[in-house]
Amino acid sequence: MGYGIKLHVWGDYACFTRPEMKAERVSYDVITPSAARGILESLHWKPAIQWVVDRIHVLNEIKFESIRRNETESKLSAAIVKSAMNGKTSNVRQNVMEERQQRMTLMLKQVGYIIEAHFEMTSKAGAMDTPQKHYNIFLRRARLGQVFQQPYLGCREFPANFQLIESGQAMPISYYAGAGERDLQWMLWDLDYEASMEAKFFRAVMNAGIIDVPDLSKGGK
Q: Of all helices (H) and strands (E), which one includes residue 41?
């Protein structure tokens, strides 16, 4: 295991969409490991490293709110864009007025989490890539609030605030501290990019506000 970090993230709204709900957007109860990884990658990512989420601390009470949002019924495929970039004739066009439709969103409100994670070096690491180097880069960027892109909570219109939890620093107390075990059912763990983006799921169980995340890439369950 590489160097571990703890990042406090929070926001007014979040929506970690369940893939089985295709007609309407319905959020999972808490942030998914893949969404947590995306936030970490917004701060620091290179091909030389791979983030692994170890634990998620749920700080605030889980609350839902439903709204109707305007969305387009389809989106441009990556294949069409890639074709156009290669100089081929492609219809890279989307008429928002014609494709606009209203969809219900069941989202979370006033969320707060602590993401515990570490990174591992990949086969793409070069001679200059050391764990210490990338660890210190992440710490520096997190302390300064630097990002490569705005981190978000499931949907890009729900920005995530963040703050590094320093070594030895006390963590915020969870609303569920002292509470018993709560089964959050099956949850998307992440996509396996080495297996044609196969979706992997795990049984999320929250105990006193903490969810232990298995490493399914290494056979965890």
A: helix 33-43
Please state, in angstroms and rounded to a whole number, the distance separating the CA atoms of residues 105 and 19: 13
Q: How many Å apart are CA 10 and CA 4, to the nearest integer?
A: 20
**What's the token pair of residue 73?**
């019924």
Angle of helix 131-144 versus helix 33-43 axis, rounded to 10: 90
In the predicted model, what is the mean pLDDT of residues 165-193?
A: 92
Residues 76, 94 contacting (CB under 8 angstroms): yes
Q: Which residues contact 91 (CB under 8 A, 6 or more apart)?
A: 80
User: What is the pLDDT at residue 197?
Assistant: 77
Please state, in angstroms and rounded to a whole number, the distance separating the CA atoms of residues 219 and 217. Answer: 6
Give residue-wise pLDDT tens across range 80-108. 888 888 888 777 777 777 777 788 899 99
Choose from 13-22, 32-41, 120-129 the range with maximum mean pLDDT. 32-41
User: CB-based contacts of 121: which residues, under 8 Å, 6+ apart?
Assistant: 2, 48, 49, 50, 129, 131
For 35-71, how does the pLDDT look when each residue is reduced to its tens digit (9 = 90+)? 999 999 999 999 999 999 999 999 999 999 999 888 7
- Calculate ∠ Cα 113-16-51, nearest 5°: 60
Q: How many CB atoms lie within 10 A of CB 189?
A: 23
* Count of all residues that appear for the chain in the document: 221
Cβ neighbours for 127, distance < 8 A, ≥ 6 positions apart: none
| Residue 205 bridge partners (DSSP) | 183
